[in-house]
From TrEMBL:
The chain crosses the membrane at residues 36-55. SUPFAM superfamilies: Periplasmic binding protein-like I (SSF53822). This is ABC transporter substrate-binding protein. The keyword Transmembrane applies. The lineage of its organism: Bacteria, Bacillati, Actinomycetota, Actinomycetes, Kitasatosporales. InterPro entries: BCAA_transport (IPR051010), Peripla_BP_I (IPR028082). PANTHER family: LEUCINE-SPECIFIC-BINDING PROTEIN, PERIPLASMIC BINDING PROTEIN OF ABC TRANSPORTER FOR NATURAL AMINO ACIDS. The keyword Lipid metabolism does not apply. It comes from the Bacteria. Residues 309-329 are annotated as: Disordered. Keywords: Membrane, Transmembrane, Transmembrane helix.
Length: 557
């Protein structure tokens, strides 16, 4: 079904029929006067009513901004202005405005150049709230990573090949819970025929049924998608997407930068084998619908860690993220049960906010003096503060993350260290395009302070630590590479979203995407999952059990 709205008055042939009798002697003026006044009155009332419905939601977000207030949030697509900000006070409002001002400036520069340009849209939750699918911090880093990739794409010396066509980056807000995707998808579809046509979307948010529905709607409009962090198994290939529900088959045009949940679990399986001292596991899983990430992560744990789980009953809980009416589940009963098993591993299949609540209870467990635990989890980037690491270490708990980013990666890594080939170039660009005004100044929203200085390494790596900047940089990088590949041998034809879809599975061999997170290839047999993506396993606090990263698509580390 097309997403484009259909004007009921267009495309309909109106035929006038001659009357089969002569009424020319009737007083036409007198006969029509009353209906005209009635019709005019009805029309005026209808226009007023329509204005009362149409105008207020647009006034709330700034008339002329293109944004519409829906459910208390400004929804729609911008070029960086006006700026989206978190839905609740988070302390990051100025940072949000600062990065969007940079995106707006780059878009204006592209427009002023007069060169051929296309549009890529970052589709995600841009008015995030704590406890929602994406946190304000994750959204901020997503925008920063996408912006750095845009700057590299438009710079002949940016390391991304020929800087043609130029790239405009637009921001598409689906709301704090990602529920407002439909009007945004409709707007994106209408942008395919713009002067700088929309030819790809990146991001997409996390793996929920809502995300899948949005992806399928974009696929119907032949708009390619380069997902950054949606890791649910089956999301982009035939069959089921998890949770026992049959879906509509592979989503055409969808590839993703992130490892799949199966990839994450295989990396954790390697870690367990390498350690040799972990034997028994208990699975805790979020039974809430409609969370595809959790449903497919649970299935992957059950399949690939079946030997370690053995006959220990799984422990369900009701997660507290993703929906407004979600309630926090009591974890104390689960912790008491864990203490009564032989488990030395807890396989946690849920969202980060629920993990944090569980860890609080596990830290104060009744078997604290006699039992130590490793908690295995999958996440785009590790999410523990130094104080939290210390607390867990003192309580005999080690967090073990399978991640798509390793905070230990360094731009000056020695030869042989397991750091992606493209990470150093990304790091340099991140410092250049954000650090040139001092990243700490950007973080405070004060872009006038410290101009020309470079951010200290500690601040740069802290900004990268949750993995969202790397994931969204690589998503834009892959999209740009596909766009330019589609334009080869085009004989002056228009660049289109459809042509980009045609070449997605040519991003391999001679067209590898040398991203910050790995040397990424997309092949038909992987159905859009990346080959060559590194999946490091990270211990917090470090316990000295470091292993080489698992590599997606290879079956080896």
């Amino acid at each position: 079904m097309s997403l484009q709205a259909v004007d009921a008055g267009k495309g309909v042939r109106m035929t006038r029929y001659a009357p089969d009798h002569d009424d020319s002697f009737r007083p036409r003026q007198r006969r029509l006067r009353r209906p005209i006044w009635v019709t005019a009155g009805v029309l005026a009332a209808a226009l007023v009513a329509a204005a009362l419905v149409w105008v207020p939601p647009r006034l709330a977000c700034g008339l002329g901004s293109g944004l519409v207030e829906r459910g208390g949030e400004c929804i729609g697509v911008t070029d960086g202005s006006p700026a989206f900000v978190p839905g609740e006070k988070s302390g990051l409002e100025q940072q949000f405005r600062a990065i969007q001002a940079l995106i707006k400036a780059e878009n204006d520069s592209v427009a002023a150049s007069g060169e051929e340009a296309v549009t890529v849209a970052l589709l995600t939750s841009l008015t995030p709230v704590d406890g929602g699918p994406l946190s304000p911090q994750q959204t901020l880093r997503s925008m920063q990573g996408a912006y750095v990739a845009q700057k590299r794409a438009n710079d002949p010396a940016g390391g991304m090949g020929d800087a043609q066509p130029k790239v405009r980056l637009h921001l598409a807000n689906t709301g704090s819970r990602q529920t407002q995707w439909q009007p945004v998808a409709e707007e994106l579809a209408s942008m395919k025929d713009a002067g700088a046509p929309l030819v790809a979307t990146v991001g997409g948010g996390v793996s929920t049924r809502i995300t899948e529905d949005a992806f399928r709607a974009l696929a119907d409009e032949k708009i390619p998608m380069f997902a950054a962090v949606a890791s649910a198994d089956g999301l982009n290939r035939s069959g089921r997407t998890g949770g026992g529900a049959d879906r509509e088959g592979r989503i055409e045009g969808l590839v993703r930068i992130t490892p799949s949940n199966t990839d994450f679990v295989l990396a954790l399986k390697d870690y367990v084998k390498e350690r040799g001292d972990l034997e028994n596991a208990i699975l805790l899983f979020d039974e809430s619908e409609p969370d595809l990430h959790v449903a497919t992560l649970t299935e992957a744990f059950r399949k690939h860690m079946a030997e370690e789980i053995g006959g220990t009953p799984d422990q369900p809980f009701s997660g507290s993220t993703g929906t407004d009416d979600a309630k926090s589940h009591p974890f104390s009963p689960l912790v008491r049960s864990i203490c009564r098993t032989e488990a030395d591993m807890v396989l946690f299949s849920g969202r980060t906010a629920d993990l944090e609540k569980f860890l609080v209870q596990l830290t104060d467990r009744p078997c604290k003096e006699t039992r130590q635990f490793a908690v295995l989890f999958a996440e785009t980037g590790p999410a523990l503060s130094a104080d939290e690491e210390k607390t867990l270490g003192n309580a005999g708990i080690t967090m073990v993350y399978a991640s798509s980013y390793d905070p230990g990666w360094r731009a000056d890594a020695r030869e042989g260290e397991p750091v992606p080939v493209g990470f150093a170039d990304f790091h340099r660009a991140f410092v250049e395009h954000l650090g040139e005004e001092d990243l700490s100044a950007l973080e405070s929203g004060d872009t006038e302070r410290g101009q020309g200085s470079k951010a200290p390494d500690a601040e740069v790596y802290a900004a990268l630590s949750n993995g969202y900047a790397v994931a969204h940089h690589d998503a834009v990088m892959a999209a740009v590479q596909a766009i330019r590949l589609s334009n080869e041998d085009n004989d002056g034809g228009d660049i289109s979203a459809e042509r980009v879809i045609q070449v997605q599975f040519n991003l391999n061999i001679d067209n590898v995407v040398e991203g910050a997170g790995g040397s990424l290839e997309f092949r038909p047999d992987r159905n859009g999952d990346p080959t060559g993506k590194l999946v490091p396993v990270i211990e917090l606090p470090p316990a000295g059990n470091r292993i080489d990263p698992y590599v997606t698509g290879s079956g080896t580390r």
